[in-house]
Structure formats: structure tokens, C-alpha cells
Design a protein that fits this description.
The complex is a heterotrimer.
Chain A: H1 17-56, E1 59-61, E2 67-70, H2 73-81, H3 83-114, H4 121-129, H5 136-147, H6 153-160, H7 175-200, H8 204-213, H9 217-245, H10 249-254, H11 266-275, H12 280-306
Antiparallel strand pairs in A: 1-2
Chain B: H1 2-14, H2 24-53, H3 75-82, H4 85-116, H5 122-131, H6 137-151, H7 165-169, H8 176-186, H9 191-199, H10 204-215, H11 217-232, H12 236-241, H13 250-256, H14 265-285, H15 287-300
Helix pairs in contact in B: 2-14, 3-14, 4-8, 4-11, 4-13, 11-15
Chain C: E1 4-13, E2 16-26, E3 31-35, H1 42-50, E4 57-62, E5 65-66, E6 77-80, H2 92-102, H3 107-121, H4 136-148, E7 154-158, H5 166-183, E8 186-191, H6 194-200, E9 203-208, E10 211-216, H7 218-223, H8 228-233, E11 240-249, E12 252-257, E13 260-263, H9 266-273, E14 279-284, E15 290-291, E16 300-312, E17 317-323, E18 326-332, E19 343-349, E20 354-356
Parallel strand pairs in C: 3-8, 3-9, 6-7, 7-8
Antiparallel strand pairs in C: 1-2, 1-4, 4-5, 9-10, 11-12, 11-14, 12-13, 14-20, 15-19, 16-17, 16-19, 17-18
Helix pairs in contact in C: 2-3, 2-4, 3-4
The chains are: A mainly alpha, B mainly alpha, C alpha+beta.
Chain lengths: 312, 301, 367
């Protein structure tokens, strides 16, 4: 081959500034084309309502539900500082504790049971996960039977254990527990599924290593299983708390907030104010309060708990 | 060396010992725990089924009957008769169907934009999308309700109104969770495919429809199952926007059984079972996709 | 005493036989390598020693006790896994301390052992880091450190170098040899890499399909492979094989393969005379082949061949030849540089030939 002459290699011209801007605009155009449905829907049904709720809180509502006087932050102060809100806050807090903590413990326990390598284990897995298919309404109706004061299975069991026939749903001391029980059962399927997935993500080698190192069953659980599950635990705790704070259906069906308002969680209280009493102003204030509360609680949980979570 | 004879001796001793270090006891214990747990979990469903099959007198028995000696299968058609369950099912099906399809479409489009298109403000917009996950439904219900009822007076209520399928579905057609999930998956599609498609003359829409979507079937299936589950089980919103019994969804209709004049409790239980059937069927047939959809969120969080 | 004995150990996984009647004694303080292709059962055998698997049949002896029913943690062994299996949420220090904590070793003693091991392995500055913040080579050393602090009687290693890059692998190989010398403990090392086996093992045990093929010192495995499998597994490129017929010629025997005559020495002839059939498998290693001249040297075979491909490696050229019906691989001096299509004469000494029974593949005795 003849030697090449010393010709400079032709350089590619960089695109003109105008061409570049046009390309970006084109992308923007497509982007908006693909995004406008979501943007429109979110604006109309998420962001607008958020602002509107805050706005509604500034106005007192008259008994017919029409917008009344402008009271600015007074209504916020009176409602959020008021005893009614505080009570429902306390009840919601109790409810959350009663459902999230047992939910995690039981869910993890079931997942560990379902993680054994035994023949036929998949049947058990399906059974444990089955409550994920029950809705709030279905679960509530089912537990209505169990909690029935005259014929319910739960009532009968308690009777055997020495507690005379308790009308759980009508007893101010026990109603919240009864509703919590229903909720725990309802969420058990989901918890089991999530924890099982988490457990299966733990490499077998780590268990083998621990076995050789001489860890006991408890030691392995504390030093291998729990740390490796920490992201899942965080997820379940955060999501569980949020869902608990937003519970409504089971209270509506089982107790209607009673007896004596002992099961009136925040959302129920909001619903009652807005759609039974037509007091939109107060209800909106509570809704905004709930929003900030959930946001704050989640942020707190993430801040304090994420430190102890280990990610791979 | 002494070792050879030692080895022989020890071998003789241990020869017959079947080395099973996992004793019978552990197996039995494991199964026992499983059966116990399963029994407790299934109990509500089981009791509902039992009660659904009991004759009227038997349901007030105490201690409660654990097995129907005289199964009243007729309770099921009775339930369908006395309660417009079929209508409720239809409503729920339409509501859920539209929501699922809607979510799949909007989140596919949105995820595509976030994954493949580069435009100014993309990052910020995505964060804004994600922020919608932080806004609970309860905060928006009052204004949304007002929107729906106001729109009922606009254009004859055809766009949106109380007691309409539109009201049940439109607010939920977009999903940040779905967008997030799909975007994660879309980002794993190799750049070479995009380049090849571009060379072949595929525009964005074609690329999305003929390459991206087919490659994302499992994720789409998981999202569909997840969306189905949450839409079918909705309670608060359908409660608000349906007054007419004809428009009620299964969940609301079910809750309403309490106040109705129904023959008796066993029929109510039969109705409950019927209402629960679709979801259980979904669990059995689509367990894989369901689990994947649920855990996808857990892993990414 | 930390010898390990496999006494007729068999392991079934359902239908599959992973380990097939393995009998092998590993001496105290020895560095023994279990070598074989993937799926040959070497890892399973190692796991049986560790106590992670139970043998279907047979006995495992560590030291002077039968350990079949002894828990892994009580066998006084330590294991280094291929993917290190470090506890991801613990620091290097805690990783190394874990097993000692489980055994309630006193804190001061723990600390002492960790510092010593860390120093030996060059981990002193990394003790507070978590595994995610370490490179592959560092993680590997932590895995080693975790094993060392246990002061076990036997070290078990399952392909510990395979996740390292080539250069690091060579370096770590040497460090492992030095470590073995320092610790004076039995090492059982599993690998599929014959270079690792040859350079590190005091003896190599070669497995195929769960059965022991040969156990011997590296040089012996190279010079006197027990069967065709071992002969082709050790050495790279692999040994060349020919099928040959035996014919009497003059005083001795000659082996004939297309176009080649392998004159046999009296010793070889004697060994081969006992064969029932008159054919034999002949092997010659690529490194023992050289370019020949027309005037054949005594006791050498000469063979005509055509160059197929040449891979030049600087210090040598690896050439593939085709001759009659066979392909021959040879490692030759870099010059003269050969070219594709060239016709050459190849030459190899008959004392370098290996003979195997064509039916059984076994080496013919007394060659």
C-alpha cells in the first residue's frame, strides 16, 4: 500500500447553537406529549386539592355546607389545638401501634415459617399470603361474624379463656383492639409476602458462614437475618404507619367510630365532619393537619431508622 | 501406622449409622407450626364459608358451629337475588378495568418520557411526580368531591359527575408508583436497541409500542395486578361518589349489606364470599406477578 | 493432628452422584489441592468436610475422630468461600471477631488475634471499613483473616481466587503459599485452574464426575498421569493423542499411526506387550515437540505436518498442525517463525511418549 500523504483528517463540525436548541425543544415537545395526561391528572386531583384544602380551612362553613366567613388561621388554631383533634390523634396513634408492631412481628414470623425447605411449603405460602386478596370491606364483614357477641368464634374463645361474653365492638375498652385485630389480619398477607421476599434475598452463603462460625439459632437471627432484613423492616414500618394513619374502611363498617368515639381515628373524623356534618372548613383543617403529620412522621422515621438500616 | 487400623475400627462402628443430623422431631415441629398458623389465618374465611352454608336457625347457635351438617347451597343464589351483587360486580369490574388500563397507559407514556427523552427540567418534574406519593388520598377527598359534584352541572355531567363511572375512575388514571416502577425497568433497556430503532426509522411512539412494551411484559403484568388489587379494594372514594345503589361497587355494596333487609346473616355471609371470589381467583392465578409487583416497591424504597 | 480422611465417601443428590466412593487421605499440615472441571464434585467434597453436607455413605475423619455427626462449628475448621460471604453490615474488625464472639473468646484474646491476622494480611488500616467499601482483593483477605483468627486445624478454600483479576490472582497465589508455610496447618484448596493447582499444591487430587482420578505431587501428575483424563487436563495446551497399532519390527515393537512410526524402547515394548489388543493410545505433550530435520535422530519420531494456525506469544509460538487425520498442537521456539500452510517436519523423543489403554484410558504400567 502506498504511504498516505500528510492530509489532516476532516473535523466534524459541532452542531450550530440553533440546531441544538431545536433538538432540545423537540425533546421537550415529545416529553410534554407523553407526560400531559399524568401532569393534568396530578394537577387536577392531587396538587389542586392540596391547595384547595388549605384554602378551605381558612373559611368557616355554615350548617348547609356553604362557605362562610373568612377566619384565616383562627380555624386552624382552634381545630388543631382542640381536644377533638387531639383525641382522634391519640386514638390513631394507639391504633397504629396496635397494628404495625404486631403486624411486623407476626408477618416476619409467618415468613420465616414459610421459608422452610419442606415439601408442600408452597401451599402454606399461598395460605399465609391469602389475606392480601381480602379487601377492607370483605375482611370487616368476615370479622363481624367472628366478633359477634352472641355467636362469634372469637367471643366463644374468650369465653373459654375466662372472659364472659364480651361484646367487643360495643365495649369502649375493647373496640379499638377488635378493629386492630381485623386490621392486623387484613395486612398479614402483604406483610408475609414482603418479608418472605426479603428473607429469600439473603444469600445462603451467609447462613453457612454463620453455621461454621458457631452461631446459635438466635445468634444467626440477630446477626445475619435481622441486619440483612433491615431495608425491608424499614419499608414495612414506614408504609405500615402511613397506611394505619389513613385507615377508614374497617372503622366505618365495624364500629362507625364508636362506641363513645373510642375508635374515631382521624380519617373517620374527617369524613364525619365533611360528609355527615357538612362542615368542610373544619374537615379540611383536619385533613391538612393529617397530611403534615404523616409527612413529619415519615420524615422522622426515615431519619432515625435509616441510620440503622444497612443496604447492600 | 496405627491410623489404618484405627480407621477400620471407627468405620466398623459408624458403618450402619445413617448420618441424619436433621432429626424427625424438627420436621414435625416445623409442620405443626405451619398447620397451626395456617389454621388461624384461614379461620375468618373458613367461618364465613361455614356460616354461608348454615340454615337460618343454625347461625345463632352457641358455641358456633364449625361445620355445616346440612349445607344450604341455596344461600348463594339467594344472595344474588336479594342483593344486586351482579350489578355491583359489573360496576367494580368497569371501574377497575378502566383504572388498570388507564394507569398502564399513562405510566408507560410518562416512564418513557423520563427514561428516554432528555429535556430541561426532567429531573425536577420526576421529583414532583414522586411527591404525589406523599399526599394521602384523605387530604384530597374534599376538594375532589367538590370538583366531581360541580362538574356534574357542567356539560350535562358527561365529563364528571356524582354516580358516574367517570367519577370512579378518572382521578386514579395516573400513578406515580407505576411511573417509577416502569421507569426503573425502561432504564435497563440497552441503548443499542434505541440506536438500532432510530436507524430503522422508528419514531418515539413506534419504539415505545413495538420495542419497549413487548420487552416490559413482566413488569407491566405486575403493575396491572397491583393496580387491579388497589382499585378493586377501594373503599372511601366509592363511598363518597356513589349514592345511587345502581352505581355502587362491590366493596360499598358489601358494607351496605349490614343495613339491608336481608333474609338473615347466612345470606349476608354468602354474599361476602361471592364478593371475595374474584380477588382470591386473582391470587391463585397471578400469584407470581402479584408478589413481584408488591415487592418491587419494597426493594426500591 | 489435623489430617483429613475421606473413607469411601459417596454423596447423592437425588439421582445425581456428586461424589463417588471417594477415599483420600490428606496429611497433617499438607497443602492439598482438589482439582477438576466444574461439576466434578470437588466443592461438594469440601462441603462434606466442612459439615455443610452430609455424606450419603462413608466416613469423614478429621484428626483422629469421625466427624460425620459433628456439627460444622465443632469440627475445628474454617472455610473461605468463593464469594467471601462477609457479613455486609459489619466492619472488617467485627467480621473477623464474629466467630470468636460466638465462642465466647475473651475480648483481649480476640483483639490480639485480630490484630495479628490483620497485620499478616495487610489489613491494619481497613479494620473499621465495611465490606462494601473494599476492593475484591481486600475482601478476599478479610475472608482469609476471618478464617485465620479461628486458629482451626484445617483450612478449607473453595476457589477463593476466581473472583480476582489475573494479576491479583498471581500475587495472591504466592501469598497463600507463604501463609501456609507460616501457619503450618492443613490446607484443602478447591480449584478448576490447573495452574493454581500445580503451583500451590504439595499434592494434587484430581476428580472427575465425583471419582478420584489420581492423587500425587504436581511433578508426578505431570510426568506420569494416571489416565487420559488427567493427561489432558494437566498442561496447556493439552496433550496430543494418537491411536496407534502395534507391530513387531525386528527385535522390538513399533507403534503405527497414520504416517507416524513410534519406535519403542525395550522398556516400553515390554510394557506394551501385555496388551490384549494390538492398539494403544499414544500421547505427547506440545512442549516436547520440536521442529525436526530429515535425518531422524535416534529414538525420535518424525512426522510430516502442515501448519494450520500460529499464535505467537513472544517467548514461544503455539502452532496447530494438521497431519493425516489428526491435529497436533506444539509449543515451539519463536524462531524460525512459521507461516500458515508451511510444510514442516516435527520431531519428538520417544521417551517423552505416554501410553494409555485405548479401552480404559488408564496409563500402561512400567513405561
Amino acid at each position: 500500500m502506498a504511504a498516505t500523504t500528510a492530509e489532516p483528517v476532516p473535523r466534524l463540525q459541532p452542531p450550530e447553537p440553533l440546531a441544538r436548541v431545536l433538538a432540545q425543544l423537540k425533546n421537550l415537545g415529545f416529553g410534554l406529549l407523553f407526560l400531559w395526561p399524568s401532569i393534568l391528572l396530578f394537577s387536577a386531583f392531587v396538587f389542586y386539592p392540596l391547595i384547595k384544602s388549605v384554602y378551605l380551612g381558612f373559611y368557616e362553613s355554615d350548617p348547609l355546607g356553604n362557605q362562610g366567613d373568612f377566619v384565616a388561621f383562627d380555624q386552624y388554631r382552634s381545630v388543631l389545638g382542640g381536644s377533638e383533634f387531639r383525641d382522634s390523634l391519640w386514638i390513631t396513634f394507639k391504633f397504629t401501634l396496635l397494628t404495625v408492631v404486631p403486624g411486623i412481628v407476626l408477618g416476619l414470623g409467618l415468613a420465616m415459617l414459610a421459608n422452610q425447605k419442606l415439601p408442600g411449603i408452597s401451599i402454606f405460602r399461598t395460605i399465609f399470603a391469602s389475606t392480601v386478596a381480602t379487601s377492607v370491606a370483605v375482611a370487616s364483614m368476615m370479622w363481624l361474624t367472628l366478633l359477634n357477641p352472641t355467636t362469634g368464634l372469637v367471643t366463644w374463645i374468650l369465653d373459654q379463656l375466662g372472659q364472659p361474653r364480651l361484646n367487643l365492638l360495643n365495649d369502649p375498652d375493647w373496640a379499638l383492639v377488635a378493629v386492630s385485630l381485623t386490621t392486623i389480619w387484613l395486612n398479614l398477607g402483604l406483610a408475609t409476602i414482603v418479608f418472605l421476599a426479603g428473607l429469600q434475598g439473603i444469600p445462603e452463603r451467609l447462613y453457612e458462614s454463620a453455621r461454621i462460625d458457631g452461631a446459635s439459632r438466635l445468634g444467626t437471627f440477630l446477626h445475619v437475618t435481622l441486619p440483612m432484613l433491615s431495608p425491608t423492616l424499614l419499608f414495612v414500618t414506614v408504609i405500615g404507619t402511613i397506611l394505619a394513619f389513613e385507615s377508614f374502611g374497617q372503622i366505618h363498617i365495624l364500629t362507625r367510630g364508636g362506641p363513645l368515639d373510642e375508635t374515631k381515628v382521624i380519617v373517620y373524623s374527617i369524613w364525619e365532619d365533611a360528609f355527615q356534618s357538612f362542615d368542610y372548613g373544619v374537615a379540611s383543617v383536619k385533613a391538612v393537619g393529617l397530611f403534615i403529620l404523616v409527612l413529619g412522621l415519615t420524615a422522622l422515621q426515615l431519619r432515625f431508622l435509616e441510620r440503622r438500616v444497612f443496604y447492600q | 501406622m496405627a491410623t489404618k487400623s484405627e480407621a477400620l475400627a471407627t468405620r466398623a462402628v459408624t458403618a450402619e449409622r445413617a448420618v441424619r443430623r436433621r432429626p424427625w422431631g424438627r420436621y414435625a415441629l416445623g409442620y405443626l407450626a405451619l398447620i397451626l398458623a395456617a389454621a388461624v389465618i384461614i379461620m375468618p374465611i373458613y367461618m364465613t364459608a361455614v356460616n354461608a352454608l348454615l340454615p337460618k336457625q343454625a347461625i345463632v347457635a352457641y358455641p358456633p358451629k364449625l361445620f355445616p351438617s346440612d349445607p344450604q347451597w341455596g344461600n348463594f343464589p339467594k344472595a344474588l337475588d336479594q342483593v344486586p351483587l351482579a350489578r355491583y360486580m359489573l360496576n367494580s369490574t368497569i371501574q377497575t378495568g378502566v383504572i388498570v388500563v388507564g394507569q398502564l397507559v399513562t405510566s408507560s407514556l410518562a416512564a418513557y418520557a423520563f427514561a428516554f427523552l432528555r429535556f430541561p427540567g426532567r429531573g425536577l418534574l420526576f421529583l414532583i411526580f414522586l411527591s404525589t406519593l406523599m399526599v394521602p388520598l384523605e387530604v384530597s377527598i374534599i376538594p375532589n368531591y367538590q370538583t366531581v359534584s360541580t362538574m356534574g352541572h357542567v356539560l350535562g355531567g358527561h365529563i364528571l359527575s356524582i354516580d358516574s363511572y367517570q367519577a370512579l375512575t378518572i382521578p386514579f388514571l395516573a400513578t406515580a408508583f407505576g411511573t417509577f416502577l416502569l421507569r426503573q425497568h425502561f432504564m435497563t433497556i440497552p441503548k443499542e436497541l434505541r440506536d438500532a430503532a432510530a436507524i430503522d426509522g422508528y419514531g418515539h411512539l413506534r419504539f415505545l409500542l413495538f420495542v419497549v412494551i413487548p420487552l416490559s411484559r413482566p413488569v407491566l403484568a405486575s403493575l396491572a395486578v397491583f393496580a387491579f388489587l388497589s382499585a378493586w379494594n377501594q373503599y372511601l372514594w366509592p363511598l363518597l361518589v356513589t349514592n345511587d345503589d345502581n352505581m355502587r361497587t362491590v366493596q360499598i355494596g358489601l358494607a351496605g349489606l349490614r343495613g339491608r333487609e336481608i333474609d338473615s346473616f347466612n345470606v349476608v355471609m354468602a354474599g361476602t364470599l361471592i364478593a371475595a371470589m374474584p380477588m382470591f381467583a386473582m391470587l391463585i392465578f397471578f400469584q407470581g406477578q402479584l408478589v413481584r409487583g408488591l415487592t418491587a416497591g419494597a426493594v426500591k424504597r | 493432628m489435623s489430617r483429613v480422611v475421606f473413607d469411601r465417601v459417596t454423596k447423592h443428590f437425588g439421582e445425581v452422584v456428586a461424589v463417588d466412593d471417594l477415599s483420600l487421605e490428606i496429611y497433617d499440615k499438607e497443602f492439598l489441592v482438589l482439582l477438576g472441571p466444574s461439576g466434578c464434585g470437588k466443592s461438594t467434597a469440601l462441603r462434606i468436610v466442612a459439615g455443610l453436607e452430609d455424606p450419603t455413605q462413608g466416613t469423614i475423619i478429621i484428626g483422629d475422630r469421625v466427624v460425620n455427626s459433628v456439627e460444622a462449628k465443632n469440627r475445628d475448621i474454617a472455610m473461605v468461600f468463593q464469594d467471601y460471604a462477609l457479613y455486609p453490615h459489619m466492619s472488617v474488625y467485627d467480621n473477623m471477631a464474629f466467630s470468636m464472639r460466638m465462642r465466647h473468646v475473651h475480648r483481649r484474646e480476640r483483639h490480639q488475634r485480630i490484630l495479628e491476622a490483620a497485620h499478616t494480611l495487610g489489613l491494619d488500616t481497613l479494620l473499621s471499613r465495611k465490606p462494601a467499601a473494599l476492593s475484591g482483593g481486600q475482601r478476599q483477605r478479610v475472608a482469609l483473616g476471618r478464617a485465620i483468627v479461628r486458629q482451626p486445624s484445617v483450612f478449607l478454600m473453595d476457589e477463593p481466587l476466581s473472583n480476582l483479576d489475573a494479576k491479583l490472582r498471581v500475587q495472591t497465589r504466592r501469598e497463600l503459599i507463604k501463609l501456609h508455610r507460616r501457619l503450618q496447618t492443613t490446607f484443602i484448596y478447591v480449584t478448576h485452574d490447573q495452574v493454581e493447582a500445580m503451583t500451590m499444591g504439595e499434592r494434587i487430587a484430581i476428580l472427575k464426575d465425583g471419582a478420584l482420578q489420581q492423587v500425587a505431587r504436581p511433578q508426578d501428575v505431570y510426568d506420569r498421569p494416571a489416565n487420559v483424563f488427567v493427561a489432558s487436563f494437566i498442561g496447556s495446551p493439552a496433550m496430543n493423542f494418537f491411536q496407534a497399532d502395534l507391530e513387531s519390527e525386528g527385535d522390538g515393537l513399533v507403534a503405527h499411526s497414520d504416517g507416524v512410526e513410534f519406535p519403542l524402547s525395550p522398556v516400553q515394548a515390554k510394557a506394551l506387550a501385555t496388551l490384549p489388543t494390538r492398539n494403544v493410545t499414544v500421547g505427547i505433550r506440545p512442549e516436547h515437540i520440536a521442529l525436526g530435520e530429515a535425518a531422524a535422530k535416534a529414538d525420535h519420531c518424525v512426522l510430516g505436518a502442515v501448519v494450520d494456525t500460529v499464535e505467537s506469544l513472544g517467548a514461544e509460538q503455539q502452532v496447530t498442525f494438521s497431519s493425516a487425520e489428526s491435529t497436533i498442537q506444539a509449543r515451539l521456539d519463536p524462531s524460525p517463525a512459521l507461516r500458515e500452510g508451511e510444510q514442516v517436519l516435527l520431531m519428538f523423543a520417544s521417551e517423552k511418549l505416554h501410553f494409555f489403554d485405548p479401552e480404559t484410558g488408564l496409563r500402561i504400567q512400567d513405561q
